[in-house]
Every structure is written in structure tokens, then in C-alpha cells.
Amino acid sequence: MSDVILELKNLQKWFPVRRNMTQVLKGERNWVKAVDGISLKINRGEIFGLIGESGCGKTTTGKLIMKLLEPTAGQMIFKGKDVTYLDKEALSEHKRNVQMIFQDPYASMNPRFKAREVLTEPLLIHDIGGSRTARGEMAAKALEEVKLTPPEEFLDRYAHMLSGGQRQRIATARTLILSPSFIVADEPVSMIDLSTRAEILQMMKDVQKDLGLTYLYITHDLSTARYFTDRIAVMYLGKIVEMGSVDEVVDNTKHPYTKALISAVCEPVSGKVNKMKEIPIKGEIPSAADIPPGCRFHPRCIYAESECWEKEEPELEEVEAGHLVACRRYKEIT
Amino acid sequence: MDNRVLDVKNLKLYYFTSKGTVHGVDDVTFHVNEGETLGVVGESGCGKTSLGTALLNMPTPPGKIIDGQIIVDGKDILQLSESSVRKHIRWEKISMVFQGAMNCLTPVYSIEKIMLETLRQHRDGRDNQAYERIKKYVNLVGLSDDVLKRYPHELSGGMKQRIVIAMALFLEPKVVICDEPTTALDVVVQAQIINLLKELKTKLGLSFIFITHDLATEAEVSDRIMVMYAGQVAEIGTNEQIYGSQGSAHPYTQNLLAATPRLHKKIEKLDFIPGTPPDLLDPPSGCRFHLRCPVVMDRCKKEVPPLKEIESGHMAACWRCY
After folding, report:
1. Which of A70, B187, B199, B233 is at a distance of 20 to 30 A from A11, taking alpha carbons?
2. Predicted pLDDT at A1
3. Among all residues of chain A, which has the CA nearest to that of B156?
């Protein structure tokens, strides 16, 4: 189980901000620090959740792992090999191993393609399968894996002839057709109806078990993460603030930001209408172009004291086996 | 119990498309009491938003309200002319926070100008009064006056949502319809908006109709909940009757609740409802849920179950309750 498939070491992605003439002449540069130094290890066969609000850098992290973006600094090790910078051939190999399921099943599929074409396109790109019939068979097999049976019935349908859940199944089948070992799932169920959401998650879990896959599940929704993932990392403004097994992080929360997130989640139980929700957080999320000094959470933290902004940023430290927190005062605030 | 601010009877909103008639809202009856929040839940396409637009008597074309009554202040607004609905009902009595409205604020106008424009459609008053009024409502939703001088792009999502809510409030309507007001927002901001709505409810004595697909959010805000399925009401009950320990009555509500992931409870296997919601061009015979229902009987396939009062204020449309 402790077989690490992906390791990120202090990975960074900074995007340059457009400068005006004065800034160019003065030599000033500004950056949006979307991902600002994250380190994590993902084990083979686990479902790892990356949680955070919009703009915290979770999707950028996913794209870095997919190699859709080049990191600014840091190192990425996949299956024991350094994959931070790759040439064209190695990149194509990497993309065969790491695949992505996108958020919107309506936008991520060409409306002029039949399911067959959607599924065989990755094979054509990677020059797999040889003949048309062989590729067709592979597509049918992938559909069976995601429980769209009989596959013949779905192969000749266009995207608009499918429901949201069926589209997301085809999107999953498309990632599976290259037999990857690692799948980045970016909010795969946020656009899907509640009644089918559980079905898709269940299907993804079954596929993961059958094929021994590893998932990186990117989401803002703690409730589905609790159900779906084994371990989670909570991101805030481009950095991980808390990481550990999902049960540990939810039931034994240490970081004040995670606490605020958890308190904000709604639960379908009675007796809460006449009570105000307590949300232990102040203000709004600052811009990633202007990250506060010291602990980057201090302006919003209700427990912050001078050491939080005067001293340097707290690093992740292990508080219990496998449970890491980046907060100076976690002992005092629990 | 009997201070109803809104009474809807047998409302039918059909869409007349080239493919046929879509039964968007099909025979819906409910009421809203003064100072309460009525939640409307359902999957996409179940007619929640259609219902919202129908209450303002402005169905989206090709939709038409073909039958029913919407009674506000003892008057059926469906009988009024368009101009008098405009003048006396829309925004004056019933207003709506549309889904995604916060992204539809005119980018080239300042917040002040956007708000004044809406206000002037209804009230002519001197600038001074109008400005004071806007300021009052902006403060009421928890923003400071200086946002009035700003432009939409300078505000965060949560602030824009607050502005849109303020705009739904400043003509002092009795009922405010909120269509998915928290969906596009982050969890923390969602919780803040929910708190704001609760605060406004007690402060101003308003009634809300809170439309969402999320049962968990509904549990936090709504005094009573109406569950819709395929254009019809499946169940209406108080918060306690739907979410309480006794459990809801309709199999659809029960299944939806079982399919909702929970944060503080480790669930090994979530339930789901097989299949997809029916095509409203050609709704199934009998109970519209019978194709997906786990406890379906022969009777369900043939006869439409009417709403039955199980206990005071708790109604469900299911033959199992008879």
C-alpha cells in the first residue's frame, strides 16, 4: 500500500501578470501564484481528494499532473521517474498513463462525434489498435467497463442523445481506453443530478477496484469527498494546509481553515432552520497575486496572533501518523 | 396557519414546442404562509424554475400558463392584464432572484446605476429618496455604501449575490423567490448567504420560496419543503416531517435522501435512483415515478396518485400512503 505512484516536491506554478509600460521599464514583475509549493505523495490504488474553494489552485495542480501546464519550479515523480520536464515522446507516454475526466460532460464531448468516435480518437492519436475493427472492439470493451450495456446500443449515439450520467460514463470510458494507471477527475459529478451522482461515483469506484487505478479527485464538495476518497488534502491559496486520511481530517480537524469549511457544509437533517450557521472565518479570499505575508490564512483566521503574520509561513508538520497540518497554533485552538 | 401570502391552485404551465407539448408544471397546488420559507427541491428538469417564472406570470416562451390560479392579496394574478401585473405585482408583491443573476449585472453600469434603474421603473421619487432607499437595502444585505460606486467586476461572487438579493427586496415585496441562489458560490460564501436569508426573514417578516436541487441546503433554510418530480408535487411537509427521524413518506424523497452524501457519517455504499427522469413530452401513465420506484405496485402504473394528507401539513402523492 505504501507504494508511491506520484510524488510532488514543492511544485509551483506562477502565472505572469500582464505588465504596463512603466512596470516593464522599471523591471517589475508580478505573479499570480496559483500553485505555490505543494508536496504530496499519492499511493498506488488509492483515491486522493484535493479540496478547496474556487481559485485555490486545485485545478491547476490537476493540469500540472496531466502535463497540460509546465511547472515554474519543483519536481514531479511518477512511477519512480522524474517527469517534471519531458520531451515529446516521453510526454506522449506520460499522457497515456495519466488521463483526465473533466467537470462538464456537456462541453467535453464533440457534438458531431458519435460515442464510437469519441472513444476511438485517443487510440488514433496514440496509434493504438491497428485496424478500425480492433479499435471498435476496444471501444465496446471500455463501454462495458463503465456499465453501458449493451455497448452496440451506445456506440452510434451522439452526445445529445445521452443523459448527463451517460455522458460522464462515456467520458470515463474514454479515459480508460488507453489503460492509464492514474486518473485525474476534476469535479466529475458536480454537474450531474443528485439521483445519478451516487451512481457515477459508485461506477468510478468499481472501475478503480477492478483495474487497480489511482484517482486524484478534485472537488470543492467535502461531502462527496468523505464518501469517495481515502485521503484528502485541503488547499488554500495555492498551498496545502491540511492533509491526512479523510476520516481523520473531517472528524479530528486541526487547521482553522478546514474547520471553517466543515462548519459551512449543509447536512440534510432537521432542526436547523431557526439557527444561524456559525462560520468561523472572516472576510473573503485574497487574490493569488497578492498573498499575505506569514501564514497566508491569517487575515481570515479568527485565532490569528502576531506570530502568525510576523514569523515565516508555517510548514506542514505531522501531528499524528499521516495527519499533517500547516498551522503554528493548532494545539492551542483545538 | 391561515395567513397565506400566496395561494397556488392547480397551476399548469406547458411548453408548446415543435416536438409537442412539454408538461413543465402539471397541476401544482400549494401555498406560502407569511414569514416562512418554502423550499422547492427536485432534479433538473422537474419544473422548479418553470414554477418560479409562472408565479411572476412570465413563463419563458414557448411556455404558457394554461390553467390554474395564483392568488396574491385575494386577487388571481393570472386574470390581470400584463401592464397591471407589471405595475402592481412583479417586484411589488413577488420578486425573484434568478439563477445566475449575479452574472447578469450590466458590466458598464455602476451598482448604483443598475439599482436606480430598476427602482425608477416602479417609483418616481427624487434622486435623494431613491438613493437613500438603495443605501438602506445595500446595508441590510451586509454591504457598505461604497459598493454603490463600484462596478460588477470589482465585486466578488458573494457580494454580487447580495446586490441581486437587495434588488429583489427594495420594493418591499411579500414573497421573494430565490432560484438556486447559492449554487455557483463557494461553500463558505454559501453559508453566509444562507445566514443572510434567514436574517432577512426574521427582520423583515418576508416569505421566501427557495428553489434548489440540493436537499442539504434546503434542510438549513426551509420551514416547509415541497419535493417535485416530473412537473408534479411528490411530497409537501415541514422540515421535521421531511428530514426528521420519522422519515419522509414518498419513495422519491426517501431515495433522494439516501443518495445524498453526508459529511459527518461514513457511508459505505450510497444508494442511487436507477434510470433518468421521464421525458415530459410524453409523461408516463399513472404515477410519474413508477418507472424508477423501488416499491412500485400494479396500481401505480395505471392510476395517478393524488396528494394525500398523512398528518397535519404533510402530504404525499403515493399509493403506498393510502
Report:
1. B187
2. 45
3. A284
Q: What CA–CA distance (Å, rounded) separates A12 from B247?
A: 49
How many structural domains are present in chain A? 1
Rounded distance between C-alpha atoms, residue A220 and residue A264, angstroms: 12
Residues in B closer than 8 angstroms to A197, CB to CB, are 259, 272
How many other CB atoms are found less than 10 A from the CB of residue A219? 23
Residue A15's beta-bridge partner residues? Answer: A32
Crossing angle of the two packed helices A194-211 and A164-176, in degrees rounded to 10: 20
Tell which of B46, B188, B239, B243 to mutate to test the A interface (max A CBs under 10 Å). B188
Q: Which of residues 162-191 of A touch B (CB under 8 A)?
A: 163, 165
Question: Does B188 touch chain A if contact means CB atoms closer than 8 Å?
Answer: yes
Cβ pair B173, B92 in contact under 8 A: yes
DSSP state for residue A63 in the 8-state scheme: H
Closest CB to A267 among B219, B266, B271: B219
* Residue B160 lies inside a defined structural domain of this protein: no
Please give the order of strands across the beta sheet that includes B207-212: B94-97, B175-179, B207-212, B37-41, B224-229, B232-238, B314-316, B308-311
Work out the angle at residue A301's Cα, subtended by the Cα atoms of residues A299 and A306, and round it to the nearest 5 degrees: 70
**Residue tagged 458598464 (cell numbers):** B108
pLDDT, averaged in runs of 10, over chain B (322 residues):
84 91 90 92 87 90 90 88 88 89 88 87 74 88 89 89 90 90 85 90 90 90 92 92 88 90 81 84 89 90 90 90 83
B32 touches B207 (CB < 8 A): yes
On whether any CB of chain A is under 8 Å from the CB of B215, the answer is yes
- Residue A12's contacts (CB-CB under 8 Å, 6 or more residues apart) are A33, A35, A36, A37, A71, A72, A73, A74
Classify residue B253: in a domain, yes or no: yes
Which residues of chain A from 268 to 307 reach within 8 Å of chain B, CB to CB? Answer: 268-273, 276-277, 279, 281, 284-285
Which positions ≥6 away from B104 have C-beta within 8 Å?
B98
CA distances, B229 to each of A166, A239, A266, A321, B213 (Å)? 20, 42, 22, 47, 11
142-171 in chain B: CB under 8 A from chain A = 156, 158
| B281 interfaces chain A, CB cutoff of 8 Å | no
Q: For the whole model, what pTM was predicted?
A: 0.88
**Assigned C-alpha cell, A163:** 443523459
Residue corresponding to grid cell 434546503: B218
CATH number of the domain to which A74 belongs:
3.40.50.300
**Does residue B222 sit at the A interface (CB-CB below 8 Å)?**
yes
Supply the range of the domain harboring residue A62: 4-333
